[in-house]
Amino acid sequence: MLLDIPKEALSTHAVTDYANVGPSEVTCRNSPTGHTSVPQPAKSNPMSIWRAIMKKPRTAVRSCHQKQASGHEGREKQVLSSSQVKPSTPDGLARRQKEVVLRDPVSPYHLFRDTAEVTVFRENLLSWYDREKRDLPWRRRAEGEVDPDRRAYAVWVSEVMLQQTQVATVIDYYTRWMQKWPTLQDLASASLEEVNQLWAGLGYYSRGRRLQEGAQKVVEELGGHVPHTAETLQKLLPGVGRYTAGAIASIAFGQATGVVDGNVVRVLCRVRAIGADSGSTFVSQQLWSLAQQLVDPARPGDFNQAAMELGATVCTPQHPRCSQCPVQSMCRAHQRVEREQLVASQSLPGSPDVEECAPSTGQCQLCAPPTEPWDQTLGVANFPRKASRRPPREECSATCVLEQPRALGGARILLVQRPKSGLLAGLWEFPSVTAEPSGQCQREALLRELQSWAGPLPATHLQHLGQVAHTFSHIKLTYQVYGLALEGQIPVTITPPGARWLTREEFHTAAVSTAMKKVFRVYEGQRPGTCKGSKRSQVSAPSTQRKPSPGQQVLDSFFRPHHPTDVSSLNSMAQ
């Protein structure tokens, strides 16, 4: 990002005074929000500081983007204290200055050279998009909608659903959602239960709740009109972050603001060979700056969708189709691949004369660290750098499917509602308790939980059926699955608040998580309480001991002492 500092100073190294000036908000021309938090340079004339530094001998620092003469190789960047600054700087500044750091955080190698290059990039990408874009329901609806608020709503729903979710999965959910709630007013008047019910299975359930909260705010506080700019969208609507705000503003209202999602990150990191951690604050700021620089002011919505489409269909995480890429000729990653192939084949003597950055200097903050060398087998997939992720924490829960097979109107199972906040907020689940992985006392704790909802229960009927694991975004939760069927008992007719008895059909359409559907499948496969001899009752949890074959059982019985009970067993096996 470019700050309002004289061009001469920016052309080589940034000079910053950290003595008495702390971080502050500095206006950035390339930021869609108009500002970002960066350290502010000293208020005195930067050129006077620069001239004073340049008068000192032997302070030459190797540029990250130029190959220097051999006499410059090996020199490290200099850190100059206030005693090294020439008296030509203002006396007050010289007294305050404790440390001046020379650094070149971004090499031009990672940027676009001029307006002409940006224009070619836009034209190539948009021409490709016009030919190759996928036919998706939210695009059809946005393109055909005249009312700006309805158009913004259509885009808003799709963008929220597409977060962390594949397009193929979203299509059906989006279609059903828009059929049920075609306008903001329809969604605002719906119940949270209805929203959770339709969202069930899509994951990240807070998205649906916040989407409805945003619709209610638009209807009740904003006169039914969606804010038109990315800044006001992000400021006023709950659950709308920088990306979603930019997508709505550009696609629905034509604001020339860039967007950065996972697909755009991958495209930009490859096109400009950005190998540093894309999740870091500094790299993220640079990516947003590039996106803002590239967005086409005439077709901002189409351009942003084209960049995302390119990442989703061509510039994919693995096995990218570079031969079909409309901006291949401008891709630094592709150029790097070609150069590495030339060097490996020794078709050129020495190092090819190809523009490159110089990460060995340790100055470029957009290059991959020296500890992560180029992997020839990955090709352009060396970019972006994969961020190290913490493994999800492991938790254990004991849950029980409590069924009344003889309830009025057909068999029913008990569901209870989760708290209004936290994981899976407001969804329905089988009664559960947190359990230790060792399973100590979980049976007793689970029985108490069941009795708190359904009254006295026969403890001996509670059976452990197996386990099932489900991974959320940050938690791997293992459910110990139990089952209890109230055979021959008086049906429970009184249900406390926060609980309900549902038929199987109602369960499959209720607002329950995918994890609970997995639990129910375990129960259905090993359901207790059925008639003995039925196929279901014979299914049990895997045993560590292998069951002997019928022939082996006959031999074992023959060599054991014959007791009356053994004779009947042998006869039954022989039959």
Automatic annotation (TrEMBL):
<dbReference type="InterPro" id="IPR000086">
    <property type="entry name" value="NUDIX_hydrolase_dom"/>
</dbReference>
<dbReference type="GO" id="GO:0005739">
    <property type="term" value="C:mitochondrion"/>
</dbReference>
<dbReference type="GO" id="GO:0046872">
    <property type="term" value="F:metal ion binding"/>
</dbReference>
<feature type="domain" description="Nudix hydrolase">
    <location>
        <begin position="392"/>
        <end position="524"/>
    </location>
</feature>
<dbReference type="GO" id="GO:0000701">
    <property type="term" value="F:purine-specific mismatch base pair DNA N-glycosylase activity"/>
</dbReference>
<dbReference type="GO" id="GO:0006298">
    <property type="term" value="P:mismatch repair"/>
</dbReference>
<feature type="compositionally biased region" description="Polar residues">
    <location>
        <begin position="536"/>
        <end position="555"/>
    </location>
</feature>
<dbReference type="GO" id="GO:0035485">
    <property type="term" value="F:adenine/guanine mispair binding"/>
</dbReference>
<comment type="function">
    <text>Involved in oxidative DNA damage repair. Initiates repair of A*oxoG to C*G by removing the inappropriately paired adenine base from the DNA backbone. Possesses both adenine and 2-OH-A DNA glycosylase activities.</text>
</comment>
<dbReference type="InterPro" id="IPR015797">
    <property type="entry name" value="NUDIX_hydrolase-like_dom_sf"/>
</dbReference>
<dbReference type="InterPro" id="IPR000445">
    <property type="entry name" value="HhH_motif"/>
</dbReference>
<dbReference type="InterPro" id="IPR003265">
    <property type="entry name" value="HhH-GPD_domain"/>
</dbReference>
<dbReference type="GO" id="GO:0051539">
    <property type="term" value="F:4 iron, 4 sulfur cluster binding"/>
</dbReference>
<feature type="region of interest" description="Disordered">
    <location>
        <begin position="527"/>
        <end position="575"/>
    </location>
</feature>
<dbReference type="Pfam" id="PF10576">
    <property type="entry name" value="EndIII_4Fe-2S"/>
</dbReference>
<keyword id="KW-0227">DNA damage</keyword>
<keyword id="KW-0411">Iron-sulfur</keyword>
<comment type="similarity">
    <text>Belongs to the Nth/MutY family.</text>
</comment>
<keyword id="KW-0234">DNA repair</keyword>
<dbReference type="InterPro" id="IPR005760">
    <property type="entry name" value="A/G_AdeGlyc_MutY"/>
</dbReference>
<feature type="compositionally biased region" description="Polar residues">
    <location>
        <begin position="566"/>
        <end position="575"/>
    </location>
</feature>
<dbReference type="InterPro" id="IPR029119">
    <property type="entry name" value="MutY_C"/>
</dbReference>
<dbReference type="GO" id="GO:0034039">
    <property type="term" value="F:8-oxo-7,8-dihydroguanine DNA N-glycosylase activity"/>
</dbReference>
<comment type="function">
    <text>Adenine glycosylase active on G-A mispairs.</text>
</comment>
<dbReference type="Pfam" id="PF00633">
    <property type="entry name" value="HHH"/>
</dbReference>
<keyword id="KW-0378">Hydrolase</keyword>
<dbReference type="InterPro" id="IPR023170">
    <property type="entry name" value="HhH_base_excis_C"/>
</dbReference>
<keyword id="KW-0004">4Fe-4S</keyword>
<dbReference type="GO" id="GO:0006284">
    <property type="term" value="P:base-excision repair"/>
</dbReference>
<dbReference type="GO" id="GO:0005634">
    <property type="term" value="C:nucleus"/>
</dbReference>
<keyword id="KW-0408">Iron</keyword>
<keyword id="KW-0496">Mitochondrion</keyword>
<protein>
    <recommendedName>
        <fullName>Adenine DNA glycosylase</fullName>
        <ecNumber>3.2.2.31</ecNumber>
    </recommendedName>
</protein>
<dbReference type="InterPro" id="IPR011257">
    <property type="entry name" value="DNA_glycosylase"/>
</dbReference>
<dbReference type="InterPro" id="IPR044298">
    <property type="entry name" value="MIG/MutY"/>
</dbReference>
<dbReference type="InterPro" id="IPR004036">
    <property type="entry name" value="Endonuclease-III-like_CS2"/>
</dbReference>
<keyword id="KW-0539">Nucleus</keyword>
<keyword id="KW-0326">Glycosidase</keyword>
<keyword id="KW-0479">Metal-binding</keyword>
<dbReference type="Pfam" id="PF14815">
    <property type="entry name" value="NUDIX_4"/>
</dbReference>
<feature type="region of interest" description="Disordered">
    <location>
        <begin position="60"/>
        <end position="96"/>
    </location>
</feature>
<dbReference type="GO" id="GO:0032357">
    <property type="term" value="F:oxidized purine DNA binding"/>
</dbReference>
